Amino acid sequence: MAHPERLGKYRVTGVLGEGAMGIVYKGFDPDIRREVAIKTMRVAADADAGQGVSYADRFRNEAQAAGRLQHPGIVAVYDFGRDAGVDYIAMEYVRGNTLSRYITQAISEQLDINDDDVASIIGQLLEALDHAHVQGVWHRDIKPSNLIITPTGKVKVSDFGIARIENADLTQAASLIGTPAYMAPERFQGLPMDRRVDLYATGVVLYQMLTGRVPFSGPPETIMYKAVHEPLVLPSRLPGLARLAPYDDLLTRALAKRAEDRFANAVQFMDALEAAMGRLHPDSISNATITALMPQALVPPGDLATNSSLPTGFSADDLAQAAARLSRHVGPMAQVMVKRVARGCSDLPTLYARLAEQVTYPNARLAFEQEAATLATGTGRPGATGTGSRAPSPTNTGLRGAPPTNTGTASARHPTQPAPTNTGGSAGLAPPSAAVVDAAQRLLARQIGPIATLVVKKALAAAPQRDAFIQRLAQAVDDPAARARLVDELRRLPP
After folding, report:
1. Which of 113, 182, 367, 479 has the most beta carbons within 10 angstroms of its beta carbon?
2. pLDDT digits (tens, 9 = 90+) for 304-327
3. Residue 494: which residues within 8 A CB-CB, separation 6 or more?
4. Domain covering 97-277 in this structure, CATH number
5. What is the largest CA-CA distance in the chain?
6. CATH code of the domain made up of 6-92
7. Hey, which residues are catalytic here?
8. Residue 49 φ/ψ, nearest 5 degrees
């Protein structure tokens, strides 16, 4: 079929995916000058909708539901419109891959998903759901294919197409739309539902990540019966999975048959997850998992081997320092990008200029380009830390290996955290004052909503020093300009 050249003001630049309901295009917004994803609906699909809420109504509902939500863990919706009889939603274009792809790969290769990565993915999902639920929106189709993992290890929740807006006038006809294996029992029983259907689905995703299977499987009617009547087989009782016993109580509650026996909200679920893990969940997933998630074309064979040959003309130290600088903007994929790009470069200025092209956000890209210019004029050397110290050479491992070596000073459980900048001597090493903590909660809430309280709590626990605390909070803000303002305002506060 012929694809449109434009939809509304958006120029269509490619096809991202196609299904029975419609096509998702890659597009470009000429006003803001940014890439977008454009989701469309097939007109023919609406003709089969039958009674109740039509596909067009649900499509519009997706735009309205997601448009109410502003959170770094939720794919942002920019616009909704109709052009030449085609309904479309313009939304954030997210680079990455789905969790379902990774689970499938892990099963086929008989790999265990890193426990920290499990906790991180589920924890990030719950933080996004908490924001949506506070806004009176619940998703109703949480599953691995609707969870995108970005190259920086962040989770993005997509597809609010059957979302329920609290107090919205949606008919019962749409209530069973979704994926049976992830549906809470009350949805099969025609009982009232609320945000706890999302928490049940999150429990299914957690169960699947731990065991490689969903709790109840089979044809839809079989799943319905099992979900309502059959007891849950605890993960630790599956063959060879006794090590999963710490998750049994957590999943028993998350997947309870009755909604009132489950967690009342996402925060309760997060607290239970932390108790089961014995620690706070990391803010992003490991380098090894990200590498496995990314398209294979992005990672040439041998690039991740610890003993792989270095690109001609560069020392291991040169590449390590380049990766350390780039990781501040793109996360742990920096190590892969540096080695790949370096193979086509003959000197450091060219390498840094080429690496700048890998940075998505304009402000961050400009900063990186300035580093390249500094090198070219001979006034500085990329990789210098300002103190004479050098970043350690990065080490990558397979999925079963130890966690990757962090190029900053943060814990190895947080590979994407940049090294904190100490702007105030010993003051930066002291614990943040009550004034800093209060200001952090207030300023961060403007960017990510009520979940800011939890983010601040976790940042305090993981980063007790002021500068490290501020840098950790900055990771929760996606927009570079807003991130820089947050850091600047917090650093200007008295110790």
Report:
1. 182
2. 333 345 566 788 778 878 877 776
3. 433, 435
4. 1.10.510.10
5. 72
6. 3.30.200.20
7. 141
8. -65, -30
